[in-house]
Amino acid sequence: MVARAVRTARVGFWVGWQVQSNWTDPFLFFVYSVARPLGGTLILVFMFFVVAGGRHGPMLDFFVVGAALWPTVVWAMQGLAWGLLEDREHFKTIAYIYTAPIPFWAYLVGRGLASAVVAMPATLLTLIAGIALLRVPIILPLDHIPYLVAAFGLGVVGLLAIGMTTVGLLFLISGEAWRLPEAMGQALYLLCGAVFPITVLPGWLEPAARLLPVTYWLEAMRRVFLPADAVRSFPGMGDGPLLGTLLLVTAIWAAIAALAYAAGLTRARQKGILDFSTGY
Amino acid sequence: MSAAIETQDLVRTFRVRRSKQSPSGAPVVALDGVTLEVQRGEIFGLLGPNGAGKTTLIKILVTLLLPTAGRAVVEGFDVRTQAQQVRERISMVSGGEHSGYGLLTVREQLWMFSQFYGIPTGEALSRIDRLLQVVGLFEERHRKVQQLSTGMRQKMNLVRGLVSDPRVLFFDEPTVGLDVGAARDIRAYIRTWIADRSDRTILLTTHYMSEAEELCDRVAIIHKGKIIACDSPAQLKRAASGGAYFVLNTERLDGADFLRRIPGVSRVDSAERDGHTELRLQLAEDGAIAGVVTALTQQGRRILQLQKVEPTLEDAFVTLVGQRLEEADQEAGGA
Amino acid sequence: MRLQRAWYAIRGRAYPRTVGAAREPSWIFYDLALPILGVFAFVFVYRALDAPAQFTSYVIMGGATIAFWMNVMWNMAAQFYWEKHQGNLELYMMAPCGLVPILLGMAWGGMLATTVRAAVVVAVGILLFKAPLAVSSWPLFVLIFTLGLIALYGLGMFFSSLFLLWGREAWHMVSLLQEPVYLVSGFYFPVRALGLWVGMAASIIPITLALDGLRQVMFPSFHPGLLPVRWEVLGLAALAVLFVVLALRMLRFMERLARQEGRLSFRW
Fold this sequence. Notes:
The complex is a heterotrimer of chains A (280), B (335) and C (268). Chain B has twelve helices and 14 strands. In chain B, α8 (233-240) packs across α11. Chain B has two domains: 3-238, P-loop containing nucleotide triphosphate hydrolases (Rossmann fold); 242-309, ACT domain (Alpha-Beta Plaits, 2-Layer Sandwich). Chain B is globular, with a radius of gyration of 23 Å. Chain B is 34% helix and 29% strand. Chain C is an all-alpha fold. Chain C has one domain (2-261).
């Protein structure tokens, strides 16, 4: 079962890579890996400078790392959802892939992972630009690497779980289904402390931020890359408890994703709309 | 000039990029000196395989495309220099068309298009309702376009083409992809429309021999950008009748090449039908059938049915082009 | 007669745009809730920086402007591209009204629908965040807004032919013109922060001058303007004329090229 899932995810990854990767087209690479991510980061940088009067400050470091990681967050989560939508409405292959003797969820996980990898250059370019142009003190001590690997892995699982939950909804949505992943991304951007510490959120929104694995993942990544005196979303939480909380919240989301996926799929099969097209 | 459509030595070439398919990058000649005259009140058909130049000709006539050389006139106006006047008098309906906006209802969609022709709303809506009733779509007038079946959608497109009450109506493969019933309805209305308006003209391109035969007063056969014949379907068939045509059913044959070598046999087309082979034979004269029967008997094949038939438009096409329409399509597709 | 036909065509093409809002209520979620979420996020960024309350107003105006920019990009600039793929463009080209009234109809319908959306974004922002809103001169405010709108939709009309001729997938072009435009036009901060010359260069996008002018009218003593307001008004008027003229010329060029080369109908 595990071997079959891995094999399927590998195929899904390959398909996703063929569909999403933009290395061979300089224009697309420029749009998605350079212009848009750097544009998004620079907006925050100028917002900072306008208020700070041009002086450097710890919030700038917070912005740069959050903005750099954001493409990975969005693409991993959305890539999985797009995998379903593209196969259903554009390539019209969902009926054949779903009826193949493979775990379909593993195929979608592969699609999401491919998207996450495609987003990596944008993340790296933004981090490099932050170090070179804005003097953001990004460091990666060797002893942080095990923590980085553990947190990064958990974060990706958490993102895929959110993506899979979205897929559970998309099984049942027509019409504007293409925009739902975008809406999820927008909601995450607001809630997970990507560009401001979650302590800034109003009291009624902050608990929602604490329920998302991405919030802990971004915090963990900042702790890996930035000095100890950097701005934090969870100033009172140590590195170990942060990782533990990330593990716990990710596990909860994995369970939610499994339930949402199964429920959405069952309902879509009951209604006979698994392979419907909404006029892409 | 009494002709509704007139073309003289019309040429249209397209530049192509150098590619594997076209290593020389030489221009493609889509129309090669087309001269035509379509009279008012006529349903005129353009018959030809894919890539023959039918759609290119229509696009020039409806002002979407300029000719490379030659002249085309519609209702007395030059398509090159008097496009505006031409547009005021024409309309086009294409097969498999998905124009419009899915969220509008049928009636709204048709009203929107009527506004582009400057028809006041009251008059437009009354015309739309009348036409929807005629094509049997009135009950669906408040349904969203995205909910229509292919056949309903094509009927709506037909109404769109008619709502501006054009002098010349261009149909580009109007029944392609439709089921038998919907195609029959559309053909029936095309006939009715022209019968009630002797000063109107229809130019229709089609792939279907039966459609051309059933609808058209005259048919031009177009092949590789040239008009190779132009006459009434009956005259075209007569022109092809330089010989005798037979349909012969026999026990299954593995190949029919041996029949082609028999003296007097001009052409043999074979098709498998219910475990038998149906041969359509074009012979130089009636007597040549004896040689065919003898050859089959010598092969030990029983003859199940033999019938002399009248030549069809397809036979005329074969005689003129040298191959069947399907074969020409395959050649064009494989090119 | 020709004017009447042009008016009918404008009205006809504007209709799907205006009726669409009632037919597909999902726009309330996607075109209102999503921009508002975006506004929230940037308001919290300024709060994290302890910025003065006027910055909240900047963000709310930026959020409302995004509604216009997205409408101009998706429903004007990319529209002919979609129309071509749907088969509408050919029918529009051979209609006797011509393409200009059809483009104007698209713009008019889009402007109406988007103004409502932008107004809701502003209202929600002001109510939720108690953002300061003090317009020093309403006539000037309306003049800048109107000129900005004409110039912006003129740009959209110009892009509609350009995108079609360029032949790249419109989706990617629209994507390219998101964050980079939000940055150089100062959607969320005074454009002056980018420096005078960058701001001047960015003024080719009408939103730059329109946003800066509106902010100057709203916060005369607080906002560091790019140019004096009267210069910005003149600039916007010039852009409005420029883009409308360019759009008409580009349209004629596109139509001629389409007929000469058959680009819009055939794939050789």
